[in-house]
Every structure is written in structure tokens, then in C-alpha cells.
Amino acid sequence: MKNMQGSLLRSVGTVRNYEAALTRVAEHMREARLGALAEITPDTATAYLRQRALAVGQKTLDMERQAIQSMMRHVTGQLGERETLEVIKSTASQSRSTPGQPTLGRRLSEESRLYTREQVGLIAARQTSHNALATEIAYASGLRAHELLTLQRTHKQLADERPAHEQKFSGIREGSISYTVRGKGGLVREIRIPTPLARRLEALRLAEPRRVTDRGVHYRQHYDLGGGQPWSKSFGAASKTALGWSKGAHGLRHTYAQERMKVLQRTLHFEEAKRVVSQELGHFRPEITDTYLR
Predict the structure, then answer these.
(1) DSSP one-letter string for 175-203
(2) Which domains does the chain have, with CATH numbers?
(3) Report field, pTM of the whole predicted structure over 0.85
(4) Count of CB atoms within 10 A of residue 229's CB?
(5) 166-194: per-residue pLDDT in tens?
(6) What is the pLDDT of residue 7?
């Protein structure tokens, strides 16, 4: 996997996830006496995935399928460049319930992770200054935890060329400063930070970028700002202190999505507004944004 990093696999995070997935596959192969990982065939892989579908959720199952598929295409040659493994649906989260009654898993998955502006303020007030500013920026710009570690001005780190709706950032262009972050899949996208927050951020610019590691991934950080797992933990602890509960720092992206949808739907139809929000959040497919709108 590491040999493919930077060429076939652009994201360090993807490499790490694939390595973890293939480790699980190798352990299964060994326990079931099915041979070495490099000997796995399409039929063996499908049988493995069908068995895993009984025990793990769809996200884990898809990651393992993609990791096996990548290995079989680029390392063992068991699959051609355009060949794919069968997509297996997970049944692990399904449970018996009364007809018409949603399962607990479904109810939990549909629960909103929204924070209000007032709640965000209460949380930030209970964090250290560098974590509090990170919380305010994540709320205002819809950032993931690790993206806070990758902030740069657009003239320092150019955004990748991606489709951009003419209404992208409409209503927030004025009174904001353009930055870029590196998101999932290595995508570098433009974001907007309100000018008052940007001024506070620039006051924390490091004389020299520093190397930080978060969840096994290395970043070059240009600001003395909270981010990554330490910031997420800080957010959760502050939320429980301030509110008595926490929906996780990722809930700030849900808040951003829903607040932007309200603004955009004043002039756009729902699906078009969702496409704009998807671009602003750095989603590769608009339908992913549906989860953020519950």
C-alpha cells in the first residue's frame, strides 16, 4: 500500500485504512487456513466479504472490499484494471422489530447531530484559546477535525480543480477570507473563514510550519491551532460540561450543512442547494450530504 501512495493512492489516510483492512483479511485467511493474503482469489474474496457482512457495518465492509480490490489489481494481478469485486450488503445492523417500528440502530442513525450557535458558544467558552478558535472556525466553515491541521491561504496552497456551482459560498463571500484545506481522499478545496476569525487565526501563524501526527497521518501545520483528535476530545469534554451531552465535533459539519441549506433554498431548489452544500463540504457525491441534513 505504501508503495502506491502518491501515485495510485493519493491520500495517506486511504493507505492507512487499506493497510488496516488488509490486516483483518490476512488474519481471517490464517485462522480459516485459506492460505496467504497474496493468494486470495476473487471467489475467496467474495466468500470472505459475505461472511463479514454478518458481523460488520456497511462502511467497514466497503473499506475491506476496496482494499482487497486495490491489492488484487495493482499487486497480485488477480483483477484487471476495470474488474471489480461484487458489492455485498451488510446485514449486521439489521435486527428484528415490530412491522412499521424502526430498529434502534436506524433511530440512532437518523438522530440529528445539530448544534445551535448558542451551544457552540457555550462549548468554546470552556476550551483553551487555541481549541476554542478551532471550534469557531469548524462551525463557521464546516471543517473536519484533521482539516484544521491543514489550513493555508489560497495563494500558499491552491485548491484542486473541481466542479463549482455559481452559488458556491453565496452570501458568505463578502466578509470572509479564502483558505484551503486538504480533506478526504487528498482533495484540496477552498473554504471561507469570516474575517474576524481569520484575523485571529493569522495572529497564530507559525514562523515555520511544524510536523504533527494525528491518527497515524503526518501533517505540516502552519498555525498554532487546535485540530485532529486532541481537538475532538477537547470539544466532547467541553460539550458534556456545558450541555450535559456531546454529539461529537463532527456535528459542527451537520450544523454548517443545515444552516447553509436554509440560506440557499431561498433562491435554489432543494437538490440544487444540496449540490452547492456538497461542494462546500468537500463531498465527492451530493447524496452523501443527505446524512448531514437529518
Answers:
(1) TEEEEEEE-GGG-EEEEEEEHHHHHHHHT
(2) 2-74 (no CATH), 117-293 (1.10.443.10)
(3) no
(4) 12
(5) 999 999 988 999 999 999 878 999 999 99
(6) 57
* Number of helical (H) and strand (E) elements in the chain, helices listed first: 10, 5
Q: Give the side-chain half-sphere CA count within 13 A for 148.
A: 32
What is the number of alpha carbons within 13 Å of residue 176 lying toward its C-beta?
18
d(CA 231, CA 215): 12
182's enclosing H/E stretch is: strand 176-182
Q: If we measure between CA atoms, which residue out of 204, 181, 192 comes closest to residue 133?
A: 204
CB atoms within 10 A of CB 149: 27
pLDDT at 122 over 60: yes
Q: CA–CA separation, 130 vs 108, rounded Å?
A: 32
Separation between Cα atoms, residue 95 and residue 146, nearest integer Å: 34
> What interhelical angle do 129-141 and 251-264 show, nearest 10?
40
Q: Distance between CA atoms of 146 and 11, rounded to whole angstroms?
A: 13
Please give the span between the terminal C-alpha atoms of the chain, in angstroms, as a whole number.
36
Quote the CA–CA distance of 176 and 86 in Å, as a whole number.
46
What would the grid cell of residue 24 be?
A: 483483518
What is the pLDDT at residue 23? 85
For the CA atoms of 43, 47, 48, 53, what is the dihedral angle to 10 degrees? 140
H helix or E strand, kind and range, residue 140: helix 129-141
Give the mean pLDDT of the chain. 86
